[in-house]
Amino acid sequence: MKKVMLLCASFLLLLLATKAQDKLSAAIAQLDKASTVADYEALAVRFKQAANAQKSNWLPFYYTALCNAKIGFLLQKDGDRIEPFSIEGEQYAKQAEALLKDKGTNKDKAELYTVYSMVYRSKVFINPMTYGREFGTLSQQYLDKAAQLDPENPRVLYLQAWVKYYTPKMWGGDKDKAKILAQSALKGFSAQPATGEQPHWGKPESEELLAKYK
Amino acid sequence: MAAYIKPIILLLCSGALYITATAQVKIAGYITNKEQAAVEGASITIKGSTAGAVTDSAGYFQLSTALKGKQVLAVSSIGYKPYERGIMIPDTGITVHVTLANENKTLGEVVISAGAFEASDKAKGASLTPMDAMTVAGNNGDISNSLRSLPGAQQIGEREGLFVRGGTGEETKQFVDGTLLKNPNFASVPGIIQPARINPFLFKGVLFSTGGYSAQYGQAMSSALILESVDLPETSSASLHIFPSNSGAGFQKLARNKQSSYGISADYGNLQPYNSVIKQRPDYFTGPEYGRSEANYRVKTSKTGILKIYANSTFSNIGMRNADVDTSSLQGAFELHSRNFYGNISYREMLVPNWQLNAGGAYSYNKDRMSYQLQNNAHETIPIPNTPFSWKYRSWQTQTNFAQGRAVLTRLFAHNQALHMGVEHFYTQDRYRSNDSIYPLTDQLSAAFAEGDIYITDNMMARAGVRVERSTLLQRTTVAPRASLAYRFPDGGQVNVAYGIFYQKPENEFLYQQRNLQFSEATHYIINYTKKANNRLLRIEAYYKKYQDLVKTAPVLNNNGSGDAKGIELFWRDKRTIPNLDYWVSYTYLDTKRDYLNFPYALQPNFATPHTASLAVKRYFPDINLNVNLVYNFATGRPYYDIRSPQDKTPQVFDQGTTRAYHNVNLSGAYMFSLFPKWKHKDFSGIGFGMNNILGTQQVFGYQYSYNGMNKVPMLPTASRSYYIGLFMSFGIDRTEDFINDNL
Description:
- Chain A is mostly helical.
- Chain A has nine helices and no strands.
- Chain B is mainly β.
- Chain B folds into two domains: 2-100, Immunoglobulin-like (Sandwich), CATH 2.60.40; 116-741, Maltoporin, Chain A.
- At the A-B interface, helix 1, helix 2, helix 4 and helix 6 of A face helix 1 and helix 6 of B.
């Protein structure tokens, strides 16, 4: 009886785990098609549920933070609405960080710090005048950390390009440099698989940035 | 983990046995979200039982329970609002369908905001920040001048202070960290706005209430300007500025452990060189000169506690001659020497969880020596002993010692609810000396208040409070109720209403003459609609204000005055439509009359006009690192009167009129750069410049009548335009970041 029970249990566990994994994969596939705030909000819910189902996997936490950061970027012109998303983004980024702390690779950490940087950048959008000094600096610190760990990461390059593009010239902004960065980001994207569970977003974003030069 | 799972599996496996054993009923159903999509993984329970289920990928669930009759079904799922509903469970079982609402993340608790404009370092979207308020063109470093571009305030060019909704400048009081700021501006000079005593960069939060403010504050019938000082700085820094009218330097030192900081600064300005270049209407024979020194110390007393001490010492010396209205050949010479000290201490601490203490104290000493006499063209005093000239030779002095202590205990509850209970005491000792007579005045005013922030629903908050005050001088006690309510619509728009009674002591000039006066009183009724979205802000407010027991000076000094004010105000701010451009528009309609001072009957007072409008524009040019602010203020004409009491009879209006409309366009800007970009203490420097009344429009603030009413003289600004340009440098803290980030 005991053996049967154990077998039954491990089978169920396996079933649950594979199911959770399937759900995560499905949500990530959906993420590649997301474009609106509503899309990302719905996906954030799914990633949160996935995170709840696999508490030791950093990816669903990472993707929840990413969805919230993306919402912050989409709401850039509506500072009143950003705060709850940036709070949730920060919260999930912190949980992902705790999971990566001991056994995480540098590459994974670079991915997470990029999203961290985006979350703090979205806090700047709440009201640049009041939140800029603190969170603009934090955002830059996380991006620098990410670049240090994985300088070739196309998402790091994309975000660096974004910052260079939107910072005024006299304060370190450089549209030419932004273009070069965005182009090398694009090169990086074509060298990486465009699907799968590992972070692979950023290609359309880079193309969008480059389109501004035409 | 497996250790926990095993018993669950056991339960699941053996569950089937129990179903048949007891008289259980089935509850089945499905859960969807607002878009009618199935919600998977939602957990369903019957409250008060262990029965539960989880939905499958199609959103279906099924559970069995022994409970019957009236029960509560609870559904929860990550990302959705928890759901509960009462159900009747018949013996046959039931099917239910639940639609879950998304977690309402975008709307926090409702914030009560009737009558209030808040500029905070936590401002979101198009809400005002302290920096927004401080960069309104032409404010001369005085936050209350900036606030004149917001609705509710009048455009008063000849006096400092805020004249709000038919109220005098004295009816607005300023508070720093809870305690009264007794003399916010340098001592008044007839016809000329005086600068603020306190550096506006000291504040991280500014709440400008144009009515209906909290029971935590009192002794202001119209308006309260509630200022919150900064905590510890982020880094140590030093700064200096050199402008024609004012130069100064200072530093802030943050301790290495980041637990405390101190700073000192000083600045001095003498307008003589400027006035020799830009011709002024008055003939200045002293100054004007202003000096200021400031010191602060701040220390974190624990994780949640902070103690702040601030001291400010200032002086001003001004002497000027203006043509006398009663003679054609003589000039009136006015001279003022003023000294002021102000100290403020505040302490904030979370005593035990959910109990917060805010304590504070303030002390201020002020001494103004003034004189007036008639002089000929050679500046010799020419005594004329008969009326109306005899009273034009005098010297007088006011000396005030003021101290205040205050403690507020707050109990915090869920949903931002709070109960505030506080006491305060004000000690005021005035000595007024005119020629050889001394008029002493001492008052002990005590106040106690209690106020609750009450959460009614997700979208409704109320604040209700009461304030009790007792003055030993007036020997009277007042009880002032205050209440406000905020309701938010699903689209984020918000309606606010407020009501309150506000008492204020008569001004000293009356109390010196007669002590048997009582508090003046104003009652406010306010309704407001606010909507914030997409970096835009719209605010419409209407109010009615009733005055009672105002001081009248004729026929005898009494409290029989009265009045009212009503109006509509609009505010629109847009940071979105044009990139790098931020503007706001405000409009104030005011209908007010009051019977006070020597008015023979209710009249529109000379500081009130029906229509006032402002346009404030801020634009940043990132490519050349230039920031430009422009403000246009418009006001319809103000009334003026010749009120006299011939042969000591009742006063009469002998003449009256309305001044021309007021137009004022001010421009200011800053070009930012770094002189030593490679140095480790990189500087953040800028050239600041400004020009007030750039169109040179003639501005008339009112008319002054001669004693016999035969001659009237317009009250004009000291010069038609004013200018400044200078250099500012800051080491350590990058204030320019504020400008840049605004555009990133």
